[in-house]
Design goal:
Length: 120
């Protein structure tokens, strides 16, 4: 729900300014879309985990790691936009945070797939 509200809040500047660009290259559509699509990405992860033989604590932990990674992607994208930078015009600290967040999200999905394969 927090990601949905964030997506709606990020849509406000696009409406108010009648534009989706901040500064030279900051594209507001990207963090807005990322935040809204979290309502699809994270429930699919939770649904996949239902088919594993993991206990509730393991499934919740995996979804939490995935959600943290996904939220981090939204934050990095929003910070790039509000600073007027292109989505992949990253400095080293931002690139590291983006990479860590992507590893969290992809790692959570990889764990779910491994859990599905070992369940057979």
């Amino acid at each position: 729900m927090l990601l949905l509200v964030t997506g709606q809040v990020l849509g406000i500047p696009m409406i108010r300014l009648s534009s989706h660009t901040f500064g030279a290259a900051g594209a507001m559509k990207i963090p807005h879309a990322l935040a809204l699509h979290g309502a699809q990405v994270l429930p699919v992860l939770a649904w996949l985990l239902l088919f594993t033989n993991w206990n509730e604590i393991q499934r919740t932990g995996t979804v939490t790691v995935g959600a943290a990674g996904y939220a981090g992607l939204v934050v990095v994208s929003a910070s790039q936009t509000f600073s007027g930078r292109a989505p992949f015009d990253l400095d080293l600290p931002t690139a590291l945070v983006l990479g860590i967040c992507a590893v969290f999200l992809v790692g959570a999905y990889a764990a779910a797939v491994i859990g599905l394969r070992t369940n057979r």
